[in-house]
Amino acid sequence: MHVEEALQENYSDLVFEVYTKGTDPRPMLFYLLFEHQTKDDDWMPFRLLKYGCRALDLYMARDDVPRGYLPKLVPLVLYQGQGRWTKARRLSDLHAWQGVPAPGPVLVELEALVHEVRVADIPQLEAAPELTVFARTALVVISVNREELSLADPRARLPHYLRELYATHGRDAVATILRYLWGTRNDDEELIEVMKAASEEVYTTGMSAGDRLMAKGKVEGKAETLLTLLGLKFGPSAPIPRQRIGDASLDELDQWTARILTAETLDEIFAEG
């Protein structure tokens, strides 16, 4: 996965490099350009072309590039705005003047795949052959969050999608989706009921994912507290071992925090034992 450095300040778009399975011995690479849009963009095909060319430049600069091979570009727009996407999808659409197509051949073409992320479009997602079960489930979850709907809303059919996801992609895929829901939803009881309605396997996976997420949050919170206390006691210029604190366990953080009251130096706080 790659986010171009030059675009990080203005965009959150991602470029994924994917290896496909098959009998063809040639490496098959695809750059997927994801645009998370909440409003129409008149220049979307041109923006995607620029991103794609930059991604290809970075690819060609690598040492392991097969000679004469250029990966396929797949621009995908995830549209979360109001209404339907009404702007151009093809680069050639931008050549039109007052609705009249440009004369002559099209020398460079690019067409974006636009997925409108709305609960009302869930039936269309089910009919999209290019989507995996994981991708479809992720889009359903994003659409439910986007419209702030109840997880139990029958239009979303979340128990069905979670059950299908577990059967198709397994425990890790379900855990990824449920960690996202644990982190973005406020009603834990509602999420628990949805997991129970899906299956026992989904429920068990979800509770484990939730426990890990809460434990991680607890560790991060204690680490932040320890850093604040160390800064207050020893000053902002003290050589505080931030990496060690970031990698520490909950027990280590508790031990170091307790030592702050009596320790005179950083070495005393972080001494072994």
List keywords for this structure.
single chain, 273 residues, alpha/beta, 4 strands, extended
Note down, in words, how this protein is organized.
With 273 residues, the chain is α/β, with parallel strands linked by helices. Helix content is 47%, strand content 10%. The chain contains ten helices and four strands. The protein has helices at residues 44-60, 122-126, 133-146, 158-169, 171-184, 188-198, 200-234, 242-246, 250-259, 266-269, and strands at residues 14-19, 29-37, 72-79, 113-116. Strands 1-2-3-4 form a four-stranded mixed β-sheet, with helices on one face. Helix 3 (133-146) runs parallel beside helix 5, helix 4 (158-169) runs antiparallel to helix 5 (171-184) and helix 4 (158-169) crosses helix 6 (188-198). It starts with 13 loop residues before the first strand and ends with a helix.
Major beta-sheet overview: 4 strands, mixed
Strand order of the largest sheet: 1-2-3-4
Oligomerization category of the chains in this entry? single chain
Cα distance spanning the termini: 40 Å
Number of strands: 4
Structural class: alpha/beta
Number of separate helices: 10
H/E element sequence: EEHEEHHHHHHHHH
Residue fraction in strands:
5-15%
Helix content: 40-55%
Mean pLDDT: 78
Query: Which parts are unreliable, with pLDDT below 50 for 5 consecutive residues or more?
Result: 6-12
**Radius of gyration, CA atoms, in whole angstroms:** 24 Å
User: How would you describe the shape?
Assistant: extended
